Amino acid sequence: MTDCKKGFKRCEKCRLCRAMRFYTGARGRVCTTCQRKARSRASHASRVQATYGLQPGEYDELFRLQGGVCAICRQARTARLDVDHCHRTGVVRGLCCARCNRQLLAKGLRDDPEIARNAAEYLEDPPAVRLIGQRFFRPST
To answer: Coil, strand or helix: which one is 88?
Structure first.
């Protein structure tokens, strides 16, 4: 690996040459970005453990089991997935993206599988299409 130019130093974690201002202390070996990421991961792990009772590593194991995607919409997200749980029993169900967890489950479906089935039927066979056929909305200009 090439040496860094003057005033820069290689981080032992990410292996990037970073300006000296990214290091704390005279012997700083890991850049502040990597330090912040490590603190964030540790904070997330302790919060998940305290709130949902997931033991260390179980969130990551569940994430791998789901293939790194939301359990509902099956799409990968750049942000961490939320731990979804039943609000009545407290049972952890899986990891969902913020949209599915907050909009679909918490507000729309309200932890009721019957509402989910009704919503699926509605989307597959809308009553308006049966009554009036396909009518398209055109905003007035």
So the answer is: coil
